[in-house]
C-alpha cells in the first residue's frame, strides 16, 4: 500500500527547528475559546519539547472546557502568565497568529514563533509557519515532531488525533485528504483510539445540554436558504447551561440539503450577539464574517454584532445576498 | 510514512480468485434493505468484473433507497432475476451469507461464493470468504480487486469509500483501525471525495424531515436512564413526512452521556408501535428486543408492541430493569 507522498508532506521551516532546539523554555499560547485543535496541538508540542529536556508553560486565557478533559495533559494549561515570563521566554503561538487572538496583546516577547493553519493578514511573529492548506494545526505539529525525531507517544497521539478529528468533522469536511487519513492512521498506530476519541467528542452531552439543544432547534427559522437558530441568556438560565454548551450547535441545521448556511446566534449581553456561521460548501462564510469584522474558515466562521436579534438576522441575510 | 502492514492485509482465498477468473457471467446478490456497504461493494465488484470482460447481474430484492442514488452505477441493480439464471450463472452473495437474507431462498445455483463480514452460523456457499474482523465488506472487495490486478476507478472508489464510511460511522466506531484509514486514503487517491460522500450520507435531510426531527426531540422523556422519544401518525401528517424519514432518529439521544438506552417509538396504527432501541454500549438491546419477539444487534435492535404509548414505555422500563 502506498506510502505518504513525501512531496505532499509539509516542509517544516529550518529556522523554526533551530529555534525550538536552541531555546530552553517556551511559553506556548493558543487562542481564546480553545477547541481540540488548539488544545491538542499545544499539549502535543509541550510534551514533545519536554522529551527534549525543555521547559514549557501552556497558556490559554480561557479555561479548558470540561468536555475536553479527556485529552491527556489538559491540566498543564494555566490561565495566567507568570510575571517577567515575556522577558525570560520566547512565545510559540499555536492555532492562531496574533497576540490579540490569544488574549495577550499587552505582552512583548523577546522572540516569537507562530504555527497556524488559519489565513492571516497580520504579520506577528519572528518565525512564521502559516499553512492554510493544512487541515489542522495538529497536522503541522505531527510533521514538526517527525522532523524533530520525537517519538509519538500514546498521549501525544490522542491529542493530535483529536485535533485533526475536530477540524475535519471526523473526516467529513472537504479538508479530508488522503494525507489526513494517512497521518491519522499513524496516530492510531501510535496509540490513539478512534472510537474513544469520537465518543468523547460527540457522545458526552449532559441532559441539560441536550435540553438546551432542543430549545435551540425550536428557534429554527429559514429565510433565503439560511437556517437561523439562537440561544438567549434566559435559555441558559432555564436549562442550567452556559455558552460552552453550545459548541457545535451551528452544525446540525446543515443536515438540511436545501440550506446554504447555518447561522447560530448566541446572546452575549443585551443587544449583543455572537454569530457562528457554517456553510454547506459553496459559500465562503469567512468572507461574510469579515464584513462584520469577524473571521474564520471557508466553512466555519464567526463574528459579533451589537443589535437586536431581528436586525442581526436581517443584516446577515443582506450580507449573504450581496455576496451571491 | 508507514505503508500498510502487509501481514494485516486480508488474504483473498485462491479458490475465490480462480472462480472469478474462470466464470463468464455472475449473479451478484446482496441483502434486503440494502445500505451503503451492500450496495457499494456489489457495484464495485460488478464494475471490476466487467473490466475483465465478464457479465454481471446485480440483484437486490428491495429498491435502492433514493438517498443512495449518488452512488455511481446504482441503476445496475434489478429487483427481479431473469428465469433460468440460476442454471446459467453462479451466484456471488455479498454483505450477507444466506439466500434467505438476500430474499432468494427458493433458488438453486450451480455454484456459489459468499463474501461477507458478518458473523454466521450458516453454511451456505461453495466458496466462503467470511471475515468478521473486516470493518466492511467494502474493505474485502478492495483487497479482492487489488489481488485481481484491477485498477480502482473513480466510480469504484466512491462506492467502496461509501461502503466503508457507513459501516464505520465515518470513522467513529470501534472498527476504525489504522488499516481502515489507509485503505480509505487509497480510495481518495483513486478519486473518492470525503466531503462529497459525507454530504450525501448525512446532509440530505429535507426541511420537512428536520421539522419532524425537532417535533420528535420535543417528546423526549428520560426515565431510568432510558431516553424515550416518539412520533405519531399525526406528526407525520403535520410535517408531510413518513416512516422512512425517521431513519436514524433513535441515534441522537445517545449523545447524552448518562443515558443507557435510547428508545424511539413510532406509531404504526392505533395502539400499535414500532420500537427502535439503541444502546450506549453496555446493555445488549438485542436481548431486550427478544423479550418482545424482536431482534437485532447488541447496539441496535427493534420490536413491535400492541398497546398504548404509556404502557409500551412502562413495559420497556420493566424489561430493562429485569435485565440489569
Notable characteristics:
homodimer; 324 residues; alpha/beta; inorganic pyrophosphatase (n-terminal core); Diaminopimelate Epimerase, Chain A, domain 1; 2 domains; six-stranded parallel β-sheet; 11 helices; 12 strands; 36% helix; globular
How would you concisely characterize the structure shown here?
The first copy, chain A, is 36% helix and 19% strand.
Poorly predicted segments of chain A:
none
Q: Please name the CATH architecture of the largest domain in chain A.
A: Alpha-Beta Complex
Radius of gyration of chain A: 20 Å
Number of domains of chain A: 2
Q: Approximately what portion of the residues of chain A adopt beta-strand conformation?
A: 15-25%
Reported by name, the CATH topology of the largest domain in chain A is inorganic pyrophosphatase (n-terminal core)
Amino- and carboxy-terminal Cα gap of chain A: 43 Å
With strands numbered from the N-terminus, the spatial order across the biggest sheet of chain A is 3-2-1-4-5-6
CATH superfamily of the largest domain in chain A: inorganic pyrophosphatase (n-terminal core)
Mean pLDDT reading of chain A = 94
How would you classify the quaternary structure? homodimer
- Estimate the global geometry of chain A from the Cα principal axes: globular
| Number of extended strands of chain A | 12
Strand and helix layout:
Two copies of one chain form a homodimer.
Chain A: H1 14-22, E1 25-30, H2 36-51, E2 55-59, E3 77-78, H3 85-88, E4 91-94, E5 112-116, E6 127-130, H4 137-148, H5 154-167, H6 178-189, H7 194-202, H8 207-217, E7 221-223, E8 226-231, H9 233-239, E9 261-269, E10 272-279, H10 285-291, E11 295-296, E12 300-306, H11 309-323
Parallel strand pairs in A: 1-2, 1-4, 2-3, 4-5, 5-6, 8-9
Antiparallel strand pairs in A: 7-8, 9-10, 10-12, 11-12
Helix pairs in contact in A: 2-4, 2-5, 4-5, 5-6, 5-7
Amino acid at each position: 500500500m502506498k506510502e505518504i507522498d513525501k512531496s505532499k508532506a509539509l516542509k517544516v521551516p529550518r529556522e523554526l527547528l533551530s529555534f525550538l532546539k536552541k531555546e530552553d523554555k517556551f511559553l506556548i499560547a493558543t487562542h481564546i475559546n480553545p477547541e481540540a485543535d488548539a488544545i491538542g496541538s499545544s499539549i502535543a508540542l509541550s510534551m514533545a519539547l519536554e522529551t527534549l529536556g525543555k521547559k514549557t508553560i501552556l497558556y490559554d486565557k480561557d479555561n479548558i472546557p470540561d468536555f475536553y478533559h479527556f485529552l491527556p495533559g489538559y491540566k498543564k494549561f494555566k490561565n495566567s502568565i507568570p510575571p517577567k515570563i515575556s522577558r525570560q521566554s520566547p512565545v510559540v503561538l499555536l492555532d492562531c497568529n496574533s497576540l490579540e487572538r490569544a488574549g495577550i496583546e499587552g505582552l512583548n516577547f523577546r522572540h516569537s514563533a507562530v504555527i497556524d493553519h488559519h489565513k492571516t493578514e497580520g504579520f506577528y511573529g519572528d518565525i512564521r509557519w502559516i499553512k492554510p492548506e493544512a487541515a489542522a494545526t495538529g497536522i503541522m505539529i505531527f510533521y514538526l515532531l517527525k522532523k524533530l525525531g520525537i517519538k509519538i507517544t500514546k498521549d501525544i497521539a490522542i491529542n493530535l488525533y483529536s485535533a485533526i478529528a475536530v477540524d475535519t468533522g471526523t473526516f467529513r469536511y472537504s479538508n479530508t485528504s488522503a494525507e489526513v487519513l494517512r497521518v491519522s492512521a499513524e496516530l492510531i498506530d501510535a496509540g490513539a483510539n478512534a472510537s474513544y476519541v469520537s465518543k468523547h467528542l460527540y457522545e458526552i452531552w449532559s441532559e441539560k445540554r441536550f435540553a438546551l439543544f432542543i430549545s435551540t432547534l425550536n428557534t429554527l427559522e429559514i429565510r433565503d436558504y439560511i437556517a437561523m437558530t439562537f440561544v438567549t441568556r434566559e435559555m441558559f438560565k432555564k436549562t442550567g447551561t452556559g455558552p460552552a454548551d453550545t459548541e457545535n450547535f451551528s452544525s446540525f441545521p446543515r443536515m438540511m440539503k436545501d440550506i446554504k448556511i447555518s447561522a447560530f446566534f448566541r446572546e452575549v449581553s443585551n443587544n449583543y450577539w455572537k454569530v457562528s456561521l457554517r456553510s454547506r460548501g459553496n459559500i465562503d462564510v469567512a468572507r461574510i464574517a469579515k464584513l462584520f469584522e469577524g473571521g474564520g474558515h471557508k466553512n466555519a466562521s464567526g463574528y459579533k454584532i451589537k443589535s437586536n436579534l431581528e436586525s442581526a438576522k436581517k443584516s446577515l441575510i443582506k450580507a449573504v445576498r450581496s455576496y451571491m
